[in-house]
Specification:
This protein is 43% helix and 13% strand. β2 and β3 form a beta hairpin. By secondary structure, it is α+β, with helices and mostly antiparallel strands.
Length: 429
């Protein structure tokens, strides 16, 4: 597994740099009707995504490259923030008019495949219009469900622990590969005792972290069609979390709310926060300290439960131009120049062509790259569990209900019952 001193030393990696990625959200462009073709054989495809202004600027550059290579294919961009994207997409899908190509995530694959919206991209791979080779560390499976390739990854990320390096050093505690949950919480207790700040910002309302904890214990958050844990499991998780709020080990949720949209970590309310590794760029832009990526705590000193998640590109099953859609996706995931332009905005580049083409120059992206390489070398990466239809609703419910537990508004056992009730409704929807 590689738990020697060198691995331990390199596992906590400096995260610095660019506040630009957290700049304001870009304005939404109009849909403007169906994509189509013109009398001269030119085809127009609608391409939609969510994200901030830096992502939109970069994607528009990649579109220009594609249109230069394929002058008979024009791309009409549609972009907005995350919540507005999915509100609009649901309306478009219900009306039979979603974009030809769109950014997607694992929580939505089965939901929209169930509704007949997503193209099985294997058909275009078999036709020779799309390459499904050269994806790193098995990340291609993130876009698969029920024997279909419903999305093609553009980037990969994994859960990490972001820590305040100065706080950890001042308290004399280290984050080491293979440390246990008990050791993690002991370290946070030392930080609280010595520095008089909370250790964590609120770990127990993060669905994807709870998924890792379950995977460490032979379960998972989701099965193919249901939740993969019991009410008792979740009650215990939330009871432990609430106790740590009451003891001050986890940040006061009222104070966490007060500093939003800033993170409680960068606001100095706590010394660590679990999130996706490529999100670490936000902390240096927001905070006054130095931040780094540390390993996920374990149950047995080895298995972290981690896997590579992914943003991906999916296609509308009813597009009038399936070949051109496939050519566009192929270009966006394999072209080296696209990789250089996008960098790690959507996670570490998914294909070897793009990964090799981009060399990070800032400390943040260097840190993310090194962290994922160390995790891969440690041999702990598993396969992502496909999420059932309704997973997106359940993720939001988990965050909301976990917040109610943290604030003392809902008792853990009642909260677990509530989550299971809402999950049942989401699966049936």
């Amino acid at each position: 597994m590689g738990t020697g001193r060198n691995v331990e030393r390199r596992t906590v990696l400096k995260a610095a740099g660019a506040a630009a990625a957290t700049l304001g959200l870009a304005a939404t462009t109009g849909c403007g009707g169906d994509s189509g073709g013109s009398g001269d054989g030119t085809v127009t495809l609608r391409y939609a995504w969510w994200g901030g202004e830096p992502r939109t600027i970069a994607i528009k550059k990649t579109i220009a490259l594609f249109e230069k290579k394929y002058p008979k294919i024009k791309i009409k961009p549609e972009f907005t923030d995350y919540e507005a994207f999915w509100e609009r997409f649901q309306t478009q899908a219900s009306g039979g008019n979603p974009p030809d190509v769109f950014q997607n995530a694992v929580g939505f694959l089965r939901k929209y495949d169930k509704r007949g919206v997503l193209m099985d991209l294997k058909t275009q791979a078999d036709a020779g219009n799309l390459r499904l080779e050269n994806f790193r560390n098995g990340v291609l499976t993130a876009g698969q469900a029920d024997g279909k390739q419903l999305g093609v990854p553009v980037g990969a990320n994994t859960m990490a622990l972001v820590i305040d390096l100065k706080a950890f050093k001042k308290a004399g505690v280290e984050a080491q590969f293979g440390w246990t949950w008990d050791e993690y919480f002991d370290a946070l207790q030392t930080i609280q005792d010595k520095l008089k700040i909370a250790g964590d910002t609120g770990y127990f309302s993060i669905m994807y972290l709870y998924d890792l904890y379950l995977r460490q214990n032979g379960k998972a958050f989701f099965t193919d069609s249901d939740l993969g844990f019991t009410e008792d499991d979740l009650t215990q998780w939330w009871e432990d979390g609430y106790k740590r709020v009451k003891s001050g080990l986890v940040a006061d949720p009222k104070k966490v709310e007060q500093v939003k949209p800033k993170s409680a970590l960068s606001a100095g309310l706590a010394a660590s926060e679990f999130t996706w590794d490529n999100f670490s760029i936000r902390y240096e832009g927001e905070g006054e300290s130095d931040y780094g990526l540390a390993p996920i705590p374990t149950t047995n000193g080895k298995d972290t439960g981690q896997y590579l998640g992914s943003l991906m590109l999916s296609a509308f099953s009813g597009t009038k131009h399936p070949k051109e859609v496939a050519q566009f996706i192929d270009f966006m995931v394999h072209d080296p120049e696209v990789g250089k332009i996008m960098g790690y905005d959507r996670g570490i580049l998914a294909t070897t062509e793009q990964y090799d083409a981009f060399t990070p120059t800032d400390d943040t992206n260097k840190g993310v790259k090194a962290y994922e390489e160390e995790v891969a070398k440690a041999g702990v990466l598993g396969k992502i569990t496909p999420h059932p239809s309704g997973a997106d609703v359940i993720e939001a419910a988990f965050l909301r209900i976990g917040g109610e537990v943290a604030q003392g508004k809902t008792k853990p056992a009642d909260a677990a019952k509530k989550l299971f009730s809402e999950a049942k409704a989401a699966f049936a929807g």
